[in-house]
Amino acid sequence: MLKSDRIDRFLPMVFPSGVKVSSFAKHCPHCKALVKAGAMEGVALMVVDRVFILAAATCPQCRNTFEVKCMFDDSKHVNAVVLPTFIVRWLLQWHARKMEKHGIPLRPGVSAASSPEDDGAVASAERVGLMLADDGEVVKSAETLGSYLGRPIVAWIEYQGQRYDYSRAVPEEGQFRLSQYEALFDQRLIYRRSGY
Questions:
Q1: Torsion angle (degrees, nearest 10) of CA 172, 95, 92, 123
Q2: How far is CA 10 from CA 7, 41, 83, 119, in A?
Q3: Taking Cα atoms as reference points, which of 187, 182, 185 lies closest to residue 140?
Q4: Which one, out of 5, 6, 17, 111, has a CA that is 20 to 30 A from the CA of 26?
Q5: Which residues on neighbouring strands pair with residue 166, listed in sequence order?
Q6: Running DSSP on this structure, what letter comes out for residue 1?
Q7: Could you give the CA distance from residue 55 to residue 68 in angstroms, rounded to a whole number?
Q8: Closest CA to 165 of 134, 196, 136
């Protein structure tokens, strides 16, 4: 069950692309002060490749209380959610139950300059390394080193003429960091460029 908490306690979150979001804030509609996630009470949940936030925020400057109902992606594009609050709450709880049923953690944690978006919200994120899908652009080794999550771990992959050797699996709790020489492959395995 997705329980209400301070929004900063749901962070950091890591997108499938490897982008980490470690902070969130929104401008107070009354005095325009920046209200950080620690002053928001509610829920935050990543659904596929979007983070949804539904919370009540209290401005530390003017004490105005306002609703935060938005979503953002790994490009830091923050958009207001226009559905009624009760529907958003129901949808988030429905997704949370689905995730729990499949053993997916509700708070999968893993920061560049942030910039305000159209609705006055700010998300900070950073992209490090590559994200590669298991498709025709990636050459895979025939040699396997075992399996993870029911699928084989190939010894190495090659992308745009660069070879990457298997380094490690993404931890089940979802926390990880990619260096500039690493690639996330198939959203579950991390490979490191040969020679680095």
A1: 40
A2: 5, 11, 22, 21
A3: 185
A4: 17
A5: 191
A6: -
A7: 5
A8: 196
Q: Could you read off the pLDDT tens digit of each residue along the chain, which spans 196 residues? A: 678 899 998 888 887 777 788 889 999 999 999 999 999 999 998 887 788 999 999 999 999 999 999 988 877 778 888 888 888 888 888 888 887 776 666 664 433 233 333 455 655 444 456 778 877 789 999 999 998 888 899 999 998 888 999 999 887 655 667 777 888 888 788 899 988 7
Spatial distance between the Cα atoms of 134 and 118, rounded to a whole number of angstroms: 35
- 81, 69 in Cβ contact below 8 A? yes
Quick one: DSSP state of residue 38? G
- Residues 38, 7: Cα–Cα separation, whole Å: 6
Measuring CA to CA, how many Å separate 46 from each of 93, 133, 172, 173?
A: 12, 20, 15, 14
Q: Is the pTM of this model over 0.70?
A: no
